[in-house]
Amino acid sequence: MKLVFSVAVLASVLIFSSCESKSEAEKIVNKSIVAHGGEAYENSKIEFDFRDIHYSILKTPDRFEYIREFEDSTGYVKDVLNNSGFARTVNDVKIDTLSEEWIGKYTRSVNSVAYFAYLPYGLNDPAAIKTYEGMAEIKGEEYHLIKVTFAQEGGGEDFEDEFLYWIGKDDYIMDYMAYYYLTDGGGVRFRSVSSVNEVGGIRFQNYLNLKPEVEKTPVDSMQSLYLAGKLEVLSEINLENIKVMELKK
What we know:
alpha+beta; outer membrane lipoprotein receptor (LolB), chain A; 7-stranded antiparallel beta sheet; 14 strands; globular; disordered N terminus; DUF6503; Deoxyribose-phosphate aldolase
């Protein structure tokens, strides 16, 4: 009995120490992931339409596959991005003549849609570096402010991008985000949740996508500009025809 008790105590200490070793930012992000869907993210395949393009998203701890399908002047296009890389087919024929430049553009485009659709789940990617920036207040509500940057190794071509996330103090729901990006000329954006769809145990959020008058505005200034009404609505980010299919175990 004494041995069993000692082992149990040791296990408890190790678990406690492991929890304590997590940063404040990690703890908040983990709670946010639970509030938005938790294990349902890893146990589901998700489909939706975004701007007349159909997406299928699968992301587990050890593998991922992002698919987009649409029709254009060349025919029926299917892009697949997974652990093996990127591939495009047109009318079921694989395109082997894509340059590295275009592969990079298509990869970033597919990955971007999947990343935002899966928030906040993607914030636990190994390359994501999370920092707790303290409390913030927007329209009378209190938020944990989390800054996310990326390690160069594993962070992709966009590793220099910076993100800010406003996560509810009590409900851990992510209501706002801002980000700075370098690709395609660079810029900064602020997004606020416009509507919510809960499907298959996952919270899917639509956004108003806003921009400042000056594209080189520091991302840290976006909250004050938003509250001052100095951001312009650039577009709406709406996911439609959402389906969540539980993966077979």
